[in-house]
Amino acid sequence: MVRAVLATPGLADVVLVGGLAVTMRISAAGVGHRATVDIDLVTIESDPEVAEILADAHNSESRHLSIDEINVDLIPTRSVTEDDLEGLEDNGRLFLAEHR
């Protein structure tokens, strides 16, 4: 399933995160891990939106992406600049950078 999603024509760069990413990483080491029920992707905000590209390619709604009964969650992000971090204490800088 994740291969079909990641192979969608016209899809911008995305990164697999969340439970499925952890499961794949741990299973490569031969260790079992809990099952997951969704696909979490991080993407840089783009035009057209990743949600629309996936929805069109997989006959789903862009607001509630569901591909072959698997929910696909998109987490948009953008680059952090020095201006974004200016004036923030270390904890604030780390929080902002981590969530971008």
Rough shape?
Answer: flat
Task: Measure the end-to-end span.
Answer: 26 Å
Largest sheet: 4 strands, mixed
**What's the Cα radius of gyration?**
16 Å
Instruction: Tell me how many strands there are.
Output: 4
Number of domains: 1
Number of helices: 5
User: Mean pLDDT, rounded to whole units?
Assistant: 83
Strand order of the largest sheet: 1-2-4-3
Which regions have little confidence, pLDDT < 50, spanning 5+ residues?
none
Approximate helicity band = 25-40%
Our estimate of the beta-strand percent is 15-25%
Multimeric state: single chain
Order of helices and strands: HEHEHEEHH
The secondary-structure class comes to alpha+beta
Description of the molecule:
With 100 residues, this protein is of the alpha+beta class. It has one domain (2-98). Helix content is 38%, strand content 21%. It is built from five helices and four strands. The protein has a four-stranded mixed β-sheet. The chain is flat and about 45 Å long. The mean pLDDT is 83.
In brief:
Helix content is 38%, strand content 21%. The chain has 100 residues and is α+β, with helices and mostly antiparallel strands. The protein has one domain (2-98).
Features:
single chain; 5 helices; 4 strands; 100 residues
Secondary-structure map:
Elements: H1 2-6, E1 14-17, H2 18-28, E2 38-44, H3 50-58, E3 66-67, E4 70-77, H4 82-85, H5 90-98
Parallel strand pairs: 2-4
Antiparallel strand pairs: 1-2, 3-4
